[in-house]
């Protein structure tokens, strides 16, 4: 068993130690007369620990020619550092090289590389400051999601990745098949019918909520949408809560509470990483996040949002009128310029929303809500679900879909139906908001986009 101390814990020490062992990867090595400075990072935090290796010692012999990228174990005395900006350093007594890195071919020699280049070596980019910070924030944000729902007595459920239904009705799904090339008979396929990777776990989560009361799923979803934009990926993670005995107001309160909780958690637990993004990626990020965590979100109806957009005096690429879906430019204007904070837009026209959303009494709109945030646009899409069997059947028929494909979903309305609500939050979009990173490919470790399946 390796006895080592994480660098994050070493840097938090309150006093010197006679012997301590750290392991990590060399970020930099500088050789001077009589000794070498080695900066080591193990991924536990943004900061490195400086190790001093004296020439002519066993530690120096163990270090050998190890350079940037090599992996080491360093054992020595933890002492106060005279260097600026660092509290502790290690006077090395023993060094062991686990794995060298050829300085002629190791691709992370420079201090800065473009995001585009780093996407081509996604298997190594977690060793850079920016991506190490991004993925630590991702981990803490996921922890905060689970903490939030656990505190509200939600049950964490696992919904299928393979599905025989299309939640969105868009048809942009990946086909999963065991049929060979040229075979088309679905009856001979593994499930005896067409199967796809899911675009959402919502329908199954509804079924579980109508038995468990409060549930949420948090897992990967897939869309075969040939869209090369900074906000779209073919594989991404969704947070999808569902609540029985709940309406649109409950849904909006839950969504706002989740976002504010995660932001507050990350500000508290990832301060150094957030500071990095605030300095080098998106100046003003920390102040914006602090505001999101501290203040309630605005709420405006879709009709009012359209009026605001039509009368604001700003020229948009896409014209706005009642009945059109809001584009990213409209969403960002509302969040960034009009409200200058997150805003919840609710009661959308029924024609532009999914079949499962509850129709309002006006016959024109559904009880749907989108949460729009600065820098991103839409972060959450949710609704009160249609719990009335006759209304749901009529809507399915209106859209030309086959009710027999949703027999079990309709059963939920036949047997003990209740008002219920839920939403979907794109986890990568939340991470873009938390980091200021503008491309979804840079907040997920191994992005899946059209034509990209390298790793």
Could you explain the architecture of this structure?
There is one protein chain. With 455 residues, the chain is of the alpha+beta class. It is built from 13 helices and 16 strands. Strand 14 and strand 15 form a beta hairpin. Helix 4 packs across helix 13 (427-435). The protein is elongated and about 85 Å long.
The count of helical stretches stands at 13
Q: What's the Cα radius of gyration?
A: 26 Å
Query: What level of helicity do the residues show?
Result: 25-40%
Q: Output mean pLDDT.
A: 95
Count of β-strands: 16
Alpha-carbon distance between the two ends = 31 Å
Residue ranges: pLDDT <50 for 5 or more in a row?
Answer: none
Largest sheet: 8 strands, mixed
Task: Produce a short descriptive summary.
By secondary structure, the protein is of the alpha+beta class. The protein contains 13 helices and 16 strands.
Q: What descriptors fit this protein?
A:
8-stranded mixed beta sheet, 455 residues, 5-stranded mixed β-barrel, 13 helices, alpha+beta
Write the layout of secondary structure elements.
Blueprint: H1 7-11, E1 17-32, E2 35-41, E3 49-54, H2 58-63, E4 71-80, E5 88-99, H3 115-119, H4 129-151, E6 155-156, E7 162-163, E8 175-176, E9 195-197, H5 202-212, E10 214-222, E11 235-244, H6 248-269, H7 271-280, H8 285-294, E12 298-301, H9 302-311, H10 328-338, E13 343-349, E14 365-373, E15 377-385, H11 389-398, H12 407-414, E16 420-426, H13 427-435
Parallel strand pairs: 3-5, 6-10, 12-13
Antiparallel strand pairs: 1-2, 1-4, 2-3, 4-5, 7-9, 8-9, 10-11, 11-16, 13-14, 14-15, 15-16
Helix pairs in contact: 4-6, 4-7, 4-13, 6-8
């Amino acid at each position: 068993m390796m006895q080592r101390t994480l660098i994050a814990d070493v840097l938090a020490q309150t006093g010197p130690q006679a012997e301590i062992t750290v392991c990590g990867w060399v970020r930099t090595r500088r050789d001077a007369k009589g000794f070498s400075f080695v900066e080591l990072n193990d991924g536990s935090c943004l900061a490195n620990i400086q190790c001093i290796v004296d020439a002519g010692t066993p530690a120096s012999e163990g270090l050998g020619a190890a350079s940037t990228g090599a992996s080491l174990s360093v054992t020595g005395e933890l002492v106060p550092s005279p260097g600026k900006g660092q509290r502790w350093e290690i006077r090395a007594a023993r060094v062991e090289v686990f794995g060298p890195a050829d300085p002629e071919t190791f691709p992370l020699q420079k201090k800065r590389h473009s995001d585009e280049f780093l996407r081509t070596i996604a298997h190594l980019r977690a060793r850079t400051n920016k991506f190490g910070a991004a993925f630590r924030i991702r981990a803490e944000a996921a922890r905060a999601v689970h903490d939030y729902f656990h505190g509200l007595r939600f049950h964490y459920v696992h919904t299928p990745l393979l599905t025989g239904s299309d939640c969105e009705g868009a048809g942009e799904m990946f086909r999963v098949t065991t049929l060979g090339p040229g075979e088309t008979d679905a009856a001979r396929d593994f499930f005896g019918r067409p199967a796809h990777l899911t675009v959402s776990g919502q329908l199954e989560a509804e079924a579980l909520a109508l038995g468990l009361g409060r549930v949420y799923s948090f897992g990967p979803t897939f869309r075969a949408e040939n869209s090369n934009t900074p906000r779209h990926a073919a594989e991404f993670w969704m947070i999808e809560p569902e609540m029985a005995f709940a309406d649109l107001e409950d849904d909006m309160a839950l969504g706002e509470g989740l976002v504010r909780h995660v932001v507050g958690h990350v500000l508290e637990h990832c301060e150094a990483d957030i500071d990095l993004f605030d300095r080098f990626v998106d100046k003003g990020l920390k102040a914006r996040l602090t505001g999101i965590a501290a203040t309630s979100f605005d709420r405006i109806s879709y009709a009012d949002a359209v009026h605001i957009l039509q009368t604001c005096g700003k020229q948009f690429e896409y014209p706005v009128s009642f009945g059109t879906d809001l584009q990213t430019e409209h969403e960002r204007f509302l969040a960034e310029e009009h409200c200058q904070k997150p805003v919840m837009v609710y009661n959308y026209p029924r024609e532009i929303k999914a079949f499962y959303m509850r129709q309002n009494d006006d016959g024109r709109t559904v009880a749907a809500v989108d949460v729009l945030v600065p820098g991103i646009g839409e972060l959450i899409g949710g609704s009160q679900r249609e719990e009335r069997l006759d209304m749901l059947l009529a809507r399915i028929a209106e859209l030309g879909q086959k009710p027999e494909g949703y027999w079990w979903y309709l059963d939920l309305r036949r047997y003990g139906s209740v008002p219920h609500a839920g939403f979907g939050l794109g986890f990568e979009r939340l991470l873009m908001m938390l980091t200021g990173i503008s491309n979804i490919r840079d907040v997920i470790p191994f992005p899946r986009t059209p034509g990209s399946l390298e790793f």
